[in-house]
Write a structure and sequence with these properties.
Layout: E1 3-8, E2 18-19, E3 22-23, H1 24-41, E4 45-48, H2 58-67, E5 72-79, E6 90-94, H3 99-115, E7 119-124, H4 129-132, E8 138-145, H5 149-157, H6 159-174, E9 188-195, H7 198-210, E10 216-220, E11 223-231, H8 234-246, E12 252-255
């Protein structure tokens, strides 16, 4: 299973947004640890940019991810507005609304909507260091507005459900849509790309076939995934992942 780097936004003297004594850095750390625990119990390897109240610049957070073996990066934040109570809902930010980050945004937003948050959709933010500077697919989820009582009450009353929803959205993206309920993985495959347009997936599949690898194209939400093989053993899948990586492909093990 892939490795996910979870970033608890802000930290240390950078409290992030605040409202009536509530600090964004505290909410994000609590959520990051809860989400990570759920993912680990589901068999996902999890890393964290921070597990305590320490300061890291956005560039440092990106560098921590890049120095790790993480395949995916998720940053957890709370939103805020100039006037309290003006806005409500969840939103996920991406560098570009395409590929795996787009899937992250769609899946996480949809799962949080089931908890009761308004779904404010996806926002493209190429200026954010944790999205611009990370080498792996990255997304930043804004889990409600910290200066809107409705969102705070929902987060507090349904904290386990909120953490579960974020974990579900992550698992649906990296695991082919199975969600965290799919603890018993029956087989593995190797993903080599996810595209918004079918012809791009066809081009990658053709290149793989020319290199002697079978390639399958399958729809995933509004995108198209290219994957190779079906393995009963995770170790066999990882060997093929490494082989494809050495051939220049962006290979990642996923569940079938």
């Amino acid at each position: 299973m892939a490795t996910v780097m979870i970033d608890a936004g802000h930290g240390g003297y950078d409290a992030g947004a605040s409202y009536n004594g509530r600090l964004e850095k505290d909410d994000t750390l609590n959520l990051a640890l809860a989400v990570g625990n759920i993912l680990e119990n589901a068999g996902v390897d999890v890393l964290y940019t921070r597990t305590t109240d320490v300061y890291q610049s956005p560039n440092e957070k990106a560098n921590i991810a890049n120095r790790s073996d993480a395949s995916y990066f998720i940053s957890i934040h709370r939103n805020s507005s100039p006037n309290p109570g003006t806005y409500s809902g969840v939103q996920t930010l991406v560098y570009a609304d395409a590929g795996i980050p787009a899937l992250f945004a769609q899946n996480i937003n949809a799962e949080l909507e089931k908890v009761g948050f308004a779904n404010l959709g996806t926002s493209v933010r190429p200026n954010l260091a944790v999205l611009r500077g990370t080498d792996m697919p990255a997304a930043l989820v804004e889990v409600g507005f910290i200066n809107t009582e409705q969102d705070n009450n929902l987060l507090d009353l349904k904290f386990p459900e909120t953490a579960q929803a974020i974990a579900n959205g992550i698992m649906q993206t990296i695991g082919g849509g199975a969600g965290v309920e799919a603890n018993d993985v029956s087989c593995y495959s190797v993903e080599t790309g996810v595209f918004m347009h079918h012809h791009n997936a066809e081009n990658l599949a053709k290149n793989m076939q020319e290199d002697g690898y079978e390639a399958m194209i399958e729809p995933v939400n509004t995108c198209y995934r290219v994957r190779h093989g079906k393995f009963d053993s995770l170790s066999d899948a990882k060997k093929r992942e490494q082989e494809l990586f050495e051939q220049g492909y962006e290979a990642r093990v996923i569940s079938c």
